[in-house]
Amino acid sequence: MIGLSHYLIVSAILFSIGLVGVLRRRNLLMLFFATEVMLNAVNIAFAAISHYYNDLTGQMFAFFIIAIAASEVAVGLGILIVLYKKYGSLDLDDLASMRG
Amino acid sequence: MENLVYVALFAPFVGSLFASLFGMSERKMFVGYVASALLATAFAASATLAYNLFTTGEVIHVTMMDWISAGDISIPFGFVIDQISVTMMVVVSFVSTIVHIYAIGYMDHDKSFNRFFSYLSAFVFSMMVLVMSDNFAGLFIGWEGVGVCSWLLVGFWYHKPDQAREDNPSISPSWAANEAFIMNRIADLGMLVGIFIIYWNTGSLQYDEVFAQIPYLSDTILTTAAIALFIGAMGKSAQFPLHTWLTDAMEGPTPVSALIHAATMVTAGVFLVIRANPLFAETPEVSFFIASLGTFVAFYAASMALVERDLKRIIAYSTLSQLGYMFAAAGLGAYWIALFHLAAHAFFKALLFLGGGNVMHAMHDELDLFKMGDLRKKMRGTWIYMTIASIALAGLPPLAGFWSKDAIIETAFNEHTYILWIMLVITAGMTAFYSFRQIFLSFHGEDRHTALGFHPHEMYKFVLVAMSPLAVLAIITGWFMGAYKGFIYQLGEGVQYEMSEHTHHLATYLGLIVIFFAVSGIVIAYLKYARTGEKAWKRNEEVEQGFFYKLLKNQYYVPKFYEEFITKPYAMISEVFWTKIDLKIVDATVDNIAKFFYSTGDKTRAMQTGNLSNYLNWMAFGGVLLLVIAAISAMIG
Amino acid sequence: MYEIVAFYLFSALTIGLFLITVLSKNVLYAMTSLAAGMVLISGFFFILGADFLGVVQLIVYVGAIMALYSFAMMFFDATRDIKEKNTNNTLVFLLGGLSALVLVLMFAAPIYSDTIVALYPMTEGVGNAQDVGMVLFTKYLIPFEVAAVMLLVAMIAGIILAGKKMDESLTEDMSADDEIMIVKDDK
Fold first, then answer.
1. Nearest C-alpha neighbor of B36 from the set B127, B132, B124
2. C81-118: b or e for each residue (b if 16 or more CB lie within 10 Å)?
3. Is C149 at the interface with chain A, CB within 8 A?
4. How many domains does chain A have?
5. Is position A75 within any domain?
6. pLDDT tens digits, residue range B555-608?
7. Which domain holds residue A44?
8. Which of A74, B306, B499, B605 lies in disulfide reach of C158, CB 3.0 to 4.6 Å?
9. Is A57 inside a domain boundary?
């Protein structure tokens, strides 16, 4: 039988994959993709907990996370376009202008 | 009556506050007038209280407010007006009033005129708190208050530079002020310990409650408390070995010397012994020690005064010597005689000092007796005053000093302490010699000052008039000894002291012996110093090189000893602590902490690359670290 | 039985697809695999009985967000491979691996409590969509409205940032240093 921990483990693995992406990629667009992966990993965990505890709260949170993800993408992509127009690149190494 | 208590207490305080308003501004005459008027008010209030007490015999207790109350401790801010405190109040406010008026004339060229009056009135306020308080805590507050004011006033001319000890034994006003303050600090620690012992064992600091419990306390506790309190008294009243500050305190302006270092503050130690007489009466060993020390100091100080050339220092030594007499009386149990001598001494010594101030003013701050001579023609009023004061000091009848001092000497005889008696009699002769030596050297003999370019002039008229009450009191105080005895006997058995029948019979002869010694002292002084022409006094180098002369001149090398064996080793230890411990350990620790943060900041600055990717790495690193910590703590917990 | 099969299948596929997303050099591949992974995640939701959430996942993620990404990609040169400097691969995989390990260990260990009580238990005999609607519009009404406002704000922001004067820069001059000067001059 598939237990809660199976889902949580899958969720953790997916989260870590997203984390690797966040750490590894230098391209802002790819960073966005990695962020989506992490958000979805969390959503799985919420849905699984909701199911196993027979409680709808988890699903509610998943909804709101989806809403936030949508807003984030809308605003974030707008900023990406502005950046691209300004610098002609989305590579973080090129955008580093505040070296301390 | 209660209001009068507050008037007597707070009038000087108001005067001080008023004067301090103008502390930084130019000399304003009205500051002096207002301060003096307020002091006169305080005196009037004190005198009314004294008269009231004299007629009705009712002791007044006033509690102004609860001062400290925490847990079991309850110390009210209360005052008591009994025979002892009212005597002190009258003496203090009277002498202060005259000194204030005198200071208007004396300080008229000083640019810190207003500041001087604010300090002086503040001193009087502290002194009033000291004498009026009905508990040891209030006494201690006043005690410290007069210490601070003394420090401020001795160091009043703080801008004067330091000099070598050979040129000026007091080095500088600031040095003398610090010396006085630090020595008193040492003694005050003893006093504080005494107060703690008393509180610890009786649970109260109120005089009445403490003294009521004395019969129930063990001898050890009483002795310890008496010794500790007397250490405090020794500091304030400049008894050996804490005496050196008093002569050095003469660096202050002369009104200060007259008020603080002759008439009032230095007698606070005597006052303490008298105030705590139930305690000291129960500890005969301590009392006898007090009497012996007092006698010793009387003799010791008088011997140093024999060769001193500095006018004010001679008077300071005589103060020291007279304080010794007071302690001798108090130690022998004759508390009321000590108190009476305190009052009489305050009058004639203040007069002497103020006269000395006139001379100093006339001679442009020159105090060397060898540079004066024959001043009486130019300063007739001052001469008369100083002669009166000196006769009183020397103890010739019918002036004030004779009655009180004779009573003290008689007490020593009465108690069968003949060694003390002999020393006190000899000291009386020495006192007469040095006080008249000073008079003859300055006012009689050959004119030595004109050749040195001094053109002395008499003090302002109003100053001389203001001094006249002191002169009158210096003459007549002794006549009221009997009345005063009746007055203070109302207080109870503690302060009563009667001579035995045997002594009473011999009283006349004893008095004659003292007078004989005093007169011979004066005659020797006259023969040596007062004559003119062929037999005029000349400096004798040979004598000045003699062993005893040098020993006395250098104050038995006590200041030198303190400097070599206390000050210098202390400075060396301080130096070591500073360079070795403070700089190398304390400062270095602080510096290294700062350096550590600075270098961490410098190193971690590299983290701020401005590259988002790096920041994300760090963030992830932190997140993982937190996760690991959470996991580990979950496992452990 | 089929639930177990579905779970393992979906797990393997999602992990693989997301790995492609994260590691691929080509933006197009990455995006495509991401979209596919999203679809499979909705599969998880269906298995877990969260039908409505699954549908929302499909519509919002696969439909809306992916479409947004595709449009955005048109502004960038998507066909070219992305060149990145991966200086610290060991560190990255160490951190990722460690976090995965710790999380897995934590979830696998029986440390979560049995005392958790359902706050809004699912109603028996009611479909998931209806159930969700009841909770969402009663207990979570205010957060729901706030989320709506937030989406509106995000939409306006997106339009202004990306949509306005598509052919020009937002700021007239391309050099960042002169921006402030120009703004001042305009005043």
1. B124
2. ebebeeeeeeebeebbebbbbbbbebbeeeeeeeeeee
3. no
4. 1
5. yes
6. 888 888 888 888 899 999 999 999 888 888 888 999 999 999 999 999 888 888
7. 4-92
8. A74
9. yes
The span from the CA of B209 to the CA of B242, in Å, is 31
Q: What is the pLDDT of residue B510?
A: 87
Q: Is B542 helix (H, G, I), strand (E, B) or coil?
A: helix
Selected for mutation to probe chain A from B609, B616, B617, B624 (highest A CB count within 10 Å) is B616
CATH number of A10's domain = 1.10.287.3510
Interatomic CA distance for residues B231 and B575, integer angstroms: 30
Q: Which residues of chain B have pLDDT under 50?
A: none
**Is the residue at A100 inside a domain?**
no
Instruction: Kindly identify which residue of chain B lies nearest to residue C84, measuring between CA atoms.
Output: B613
Q: Is residue A98 part of a domain?
A: no
> Which H or E run contains B73?
strand B73-81
Q: C172 and A86 in contact (C-beta within 8 Å)?
A: no
Q: Mean pLDDT of all residues in chain C?
A: 79
Query: What's the rounded Cα separation, in Å, for the pair B594 and C109?
Result: 45
Of C88, C91, C105, the CB nearest to B631: C105
Which pLDDT score, from 0 to 100, does residue C165 have? 58
pLDDT in tens, chain A (100 residues): 677 888 888 998 999 999 888 888 888 888 899 999 999 999 998 998 888 888 888 889 999 999 999 999 989 888 888 888 877 778 887 777 776 5
Q: What would you measure as the largest C-alpha separation in chain C, in angstroms?
A: 73
Task: Find chain B residues with C-beta within 8 A of A97's C-beta.
Answer: 610
At A54, list the tokens.
């027979």
Q: How far apart are CA B392 and CA B401, in angstroms?
A: 4
**CA separation for the pair B428, B420 (Å, rounded):** 12
- Residue to mutate among B613, B614, B619, with most C CBs inside 10 A, is B613
Report which DSSP code applies to B582: I
Query: Contact at 8 Å (CB) between B291 and B331?
Result: yes
Chain C CB contacts of A81 below 8 Å: 72, 75, 161-162
> What is the DSSP secondary structure assignment for residue A100, as one 8-state letter?
-
